[in-house]
Amino acid sequence: MEEEKATLEKEKEGWEVERKRLVTWKVRCLDSQDKLNKCIEELEEDYEDLKDKYDGAVGELDDLKNSVIQEHINGFEKGLRQAAFFHPDVDVSDSRFDVDKDVVDGKLVREDGGDAEEVEEKATEEERKVDDVAEVAHDSAE
């Protein structure tokens, strides 16, 4: 019986040591969890701040893009007004004047990468119509 009692006492001491060790681990885990929760809160606040800044930057970028486009259109219209001033015989209201077109290699093409041949064909067709109308007007004047 004495041996059993001594064995039980040793086991009890072992369990007590284990319990203390587990309690310290529990405290460490709870501390780590508190630190982790604080870090998560700080990261969420930082995320919200960055998201607000990003949204503001995106809005500002959109405004700048629209301003650049509007300035491009204004410059084109200014050029048309000057062309009309220096060459009164040029009809600047002609539909062939288009801010989205440019002359490349002697051809009128869309700046947005449209098919150059298609644009050229349309321009040539419109030119023929204008020439035909001018010829008919000239013949009827004679």
Structural class: mainly alpha
Principal-axis shape equals rod-shaped
The main sheet comes to:
2 strands, antiparallel
Helix content: over 70%
Strand content: 5-15%
Radius of gyration: 41 Å
Distance between the amino and carboxyl termini: 142 Å
Number of helices: 2
Question: Which residue ranges are poorly predicted, with pLDDT under 50 across at least 5 consecutive positions?
Answer: none
In what order do the strands lie side by side in the largest sheet? 1-2
Following the backbone from N to C, one meets helices and strands in this order, namely: HEEH
Number of strands: 2
Average pLDDT, rounded to a whole number, is 82
Question: How many domains in all?
Answer: 2
